[in-house]
């Protein structure tokens, strides 16, 4: 770069003269009058090293320092040493000294000075030296600027890459959620179809039985009364009949038959109830949001899970404690909310059945295993439904990952890890509610659903 190019810049070249000679300032100003006036040079003066450093503190972007060597307070050599310590300052130093001081000039050059000039100053020579030094400083500054620009670009591209990685991660999570949703929807829809199909198939034969049972009951009573009447009058005359009465234990049959019939009636009623429950649970016909009694949904899920609540060889039955509050009908997708109840209940049952509790077998067997279902009004607009078990609970690590799709601690084949992530989507996204878990190891687990009674209340704060 030529000196003219170096000087052809918007900012003036900042030059600091350090010399204890009183006349130097006016001499310099006079010689460089033109350049100072046009703003090409901006000159500063200091009488020793200390003053020079203080000027430098006020003007850290000074380009060139031209310094005498022999000065009071702090000489040129000491100033040069101080300047070398200031790594952040990009300044070049030119030493100016008398011809007899050549030894010191040489030392200064070895100590990092950029150039030197001999006194008395030849101003033409001075100008050439200033321009040459400026050119060098400019080049250095240019290099530094482009280094900073490269760094900045690198930083920006790193930030862009990071942003892309975050977006990819989000897209992956979205994909996983959609995948899990699809699997679960598919699972639930085929389960729903299966359940409603079976319910329909069982319904008719059960109705045959149930519908005829009252007649069978009446007829049996009539036949038994006929036999009794016959016994009272004639039976003792015929030893064969007497013998048969003995043999078949007629008295017992008379006693047992009505009991049998009433227990058959009870059984048939129960099957009808289950069929009703299954239909209620699948609710395939109710894809719309409708106000429903959610207690019915919870009860249906309990009926379906009934078999899993029974006592096992090494553990007592799971007791379900229902603490239902007085709730209005809740506007919701009943079938989906039933799925949530089902997921929470089956998780609780699984946890209780796989709880390796400490204590004697007798103690464990006698200790009640419970699932408490409590419902209540959270405020005028929202309800709270809690499922609490006294099972193994969980660590904070498990608790933090509960709602992630495919997160499971169950062995392969026992769980897909989708139950809670789907439940979360149903409660939070489909119903604008909240699903939270409170649990500590060995302290059981409580899952709390909070949902608005009406979907119009979704936007209202639940704390209001
Ligand atoms: N009541 C609970 N007590 C202890 N741990 C629980 C309870 N409920 C859930 N968990 C933990 O949360 C994990 C995730 O539950 P989630 O219902 O999402 O999946 P899963 O039950 O493992 O499988 P899936 O429900 O898909 O068959 C479980 O594997 C279990 O570790
Ligand atoms: Mg589950």
How would you describe this structure to a colleague?
It is built from 14 helices and 12 strands. The chain starts with a helix and ends in a 12-residue tail after the last strand. The model is unreliable at 1-8 (pLDDT under 50). The radius of gyration is 48 Å and the shape is rod-shaped. α7 runs antiparallel to α9 (250-282). The longest helix is centred in the middle third of the chain and has 111 residues, at 123-233. The strands form 3 sheets. It has a 5-stranded parallel sheet with strand order 2-1-3-4-5, sandwiched between helices. It is of the alpha/beta class and 464 residues long.
Task: Draw up the topology in text.
Blueprint: H1 3-7, E1 13-18, H2 24-31, H3 33-37, E2 41-46, H4 49-58, E3 64-68, H5 76-85, E4 92-98, H6 102-110, E5 115-119, H7 123-233, H8 239-248, H9 250-282, E6 290-292, H10 294-304, E7 318-323, E8 330-332, H11 334-353, H12 361-366, E9 369-377, E10 382-389, H13 396-401, H14 419-430, E11 434-439, E12 445-452
Parallel strand pairs: 1-2, 1-3, 3-4, 4-5, 7-9
Antiparallel strand pairs: 6-8, 9-10, 10-12, 11-12
């Amino acid at each position: 770069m030529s000196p003219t190019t170096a000087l052809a810049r918007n900012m003036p070249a900042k030059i600091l003269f350090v010399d204890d000679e009183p006349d130097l300032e006016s001499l310099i100003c006079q010689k460089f009058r033109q350049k100072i006036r046009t703003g090409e040079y901006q000159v500063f003066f200091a009488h020793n090293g200390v003053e020079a450093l203080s000027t430098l503190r006020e003007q850290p972007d000074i380009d060139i320092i031209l310094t005498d060597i022999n000065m009071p307070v702090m000489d040129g050599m000491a100033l040069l040493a101080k300047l070398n310590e200031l790594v952040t300052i990009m300044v070049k130093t030119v030493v100016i000294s008398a011809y007899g001081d050549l030894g010191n000039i040489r030392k200064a050059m070895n100590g990092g000075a950029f150039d030197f000039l001999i006194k008395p100053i030849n101003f033409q020579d001075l100008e050439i030296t200033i321009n040459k030094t400026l050119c060098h400083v400019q080049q250095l500054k240019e290099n530094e600027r482009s280094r900073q620009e490269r760094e900045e670009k690198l930083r920006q591209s790193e930030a862009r890459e990071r942003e892309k990685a975050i977006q990819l991660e989000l897209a992956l999570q979205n994909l996983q959620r959609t995948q899990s949703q699809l699997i679960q929807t598919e699972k639930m829809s085929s389960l729903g179809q299966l359940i409603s199909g079976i319910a329909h198939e069982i319904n008719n034969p059960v109705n045959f039985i149930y519908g005829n049972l009252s007649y069978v009951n009446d007829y049996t009573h009539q036949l038994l009364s006929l036999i009794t009447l016959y016994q009272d009058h004639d039976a003792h005359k015929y030893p064969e009949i007497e013998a048969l009465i003995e043999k078949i234990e007629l008295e017992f049959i008379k006693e047992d038959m009505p009991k049998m019939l009433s227990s058959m009636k009870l059984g048939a009623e129960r099957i009808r109830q289950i069929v009703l429950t299954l239909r209620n649970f699948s609710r395939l016909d109710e894809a719309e949001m409708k106000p429903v009694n959610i207690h019915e949904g919870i009860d249906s899920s309990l009926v379906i899970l009934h078999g899993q609540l029974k006592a096992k060889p090494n553990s007592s039955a799971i007791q379900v404690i229902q603490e239902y509050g007085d709730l209005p009908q809740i506007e919701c997708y009943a079938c989906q909310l039933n799925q949530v109840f089902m997921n929470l209940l089956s998780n609780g049952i699984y946890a209780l059945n796989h709880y390796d509790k400490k204590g004697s077998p007798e103690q464990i067997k006698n200790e009640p295993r419970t699932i408490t279902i409590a419902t209540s009004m959270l405020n005028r607009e929202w309800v709270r439904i809690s499922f609490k078990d006294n099972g193994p609970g969980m660590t904070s690590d498990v608790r933090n990952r509960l709602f992630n799709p495919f997160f499971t601690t169950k062995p392969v084949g026992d769980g897909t890890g989708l139950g809670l992530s789907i439940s979360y989507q149903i409660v939070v996204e489909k119903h604008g509610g909240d699903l939270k878990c409170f649990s500590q190891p060995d302290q059981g687990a409580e899952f709390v659903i909070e949902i608005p009674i009406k979907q119009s209340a979704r936007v209202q704060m639940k704390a209001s």
